[in-house]
Amino acid sequence: MHPANIPEEIRAQCYCPSCGAHLVPGKCADPLSICLACEGDHRFFIMPQAPLAGDTATAASASFHEIRGLTPEAIASFWLSDPHARSVLNDQLAQLLRATLESRRVVEEPRFSFCPICGNRLAEYDQPDIWVQGLRCQGGHSWALRGGRFFSTIASMRLELQAEHSDDVASRLIAAWLKGNPHLETNLHESVRRVLIGSPLCPRNAIRRSD
Ligand SMILES: [Zn+2]
Ligand SMILES: [Zn+2]
User: Fold this and answer.
1) Pick from 121, 130, 170: which is nearest to 19 by CA?
2) Tell me, what's the pLDDT at 211?
3) With contact defined as beta carbons under 8 Å apart, do 152 and 132 qualify?
4) Separation of 110 CA from ligand 1 center, angstroms?
5) How far is the CA of 121 from the centre of ligand 1 (A)?
6) Ligand 2 centre and the CA of 141: distance in Å?
7) Which candidate among 45, 61, 64, 78 keeps its CA 20 to 30 Å from the CA of 11?
8) Bridge partners, 163 (sequence order)
9) Which residues, 6+ apart, have CB-to-CB distance to 161 below 8 Å?
10) Can you tell me the distance from the alpha carbon of 13 to that of 36, in angstroms, rounded to the nearest whole number?
11) Relative to the alpha carbon of 108, which ligand is closest?
């Protein structure tokens, strides 16, 4: 799996979709993702290309001797950085492992109000895809928003920003992964399940978190 790339269009400069301030590369616990952050601490991620569903469905049955006896943190880091493990790691699980390792407090998800390319305000516009919200700036850059994923709809531009999940959203996603849904189970290796169960973001640990 290849690390994420910053697209040409925003390499020199780009703007925070949430507040319009400059976005600059920031630190994150996922070595394959690019984190972009503004001075207001809004964080967005350019993720590496997600593994295919057929590959992530083999994760539960994969075996990794390297992780025996490791701490949950070390196991989460292993899944994010080991090429074989990462090549079968579901994209959303990668985000949840990163969030678990970073244990930041994110009260609200960043909004999408400004164009990352030119910093102009975005306005909603009618477009045919009912599954996404269409947003466009005065400069003619068009975007689509779906579940915290914000992507360019201009064919020549390949940019997709993933907004950092709020703690509430991350908790709900972890709860969904731990429910035993047969469609998700094949993606969930036992060691990753244990990391999620111990995560400060896991709903079962919510009381501990608010101490
Ligand atoms: Zn911002
Ligand atoms: Zn623009």
Assistant:
1) 121
2) 52
3) no
4) 7
5) 13
6) 5
7) 78
8) 44
9) 17, 36, 44, 45, 46, 116, 149, 150, 151
10) 11
11) 1
Q: How far is the CA of 119 from the centre of ligand 1 (A)?
A: 11
Ligand that comes closest to the CA of residue 21 = 1
Place of tokens 């507040």: 19
Which-ligand-closest: CA of 26?
Answer: 1
- The amino acid at residue 3 is P
The whole-number pLDDT of residue 194 equals 97
Instruction: Say yes or no to pLDDT of 48 above 60.
Output: yes
Q: Which amino acid is at 90?
A: N
Rounded to an integer, what distance in angstroms lies between the CA atom of residue 31 and that of residue 117? 24
Q: Which pLDDT score, from 0 to 100, does residue 5 have?
A: 83
169 Cα to the center of ligand 2, angstroms = 28
In this structure, are strands 149-152 and 142-146 parallel, antiparallel, or unpaired? antiparallel
Cβ(34)–Cβ(130) below 8 Å:
no
Ligand nearest to the CA of 38: 1
Q: Which of 9, 71, 47, 24 shows the shortest CA–CA distance to 164? A: 47
Q: Please report where in the chains the tokens 């399940």 appear, as a residue.
A: 193
Which tokens hold the place of 210?
């608010």
pLDDT category of residue 148 using cuts at 50, 70 and 90:
confident
In which band, very low, low, confident or very high, does the pLDDT at 46 lie, cut at 50, 70 and 90?
very high
Cα–Cα distance, 96 to 173 (Å, whole number)? 8
pTM score of the predicted model: 0.92
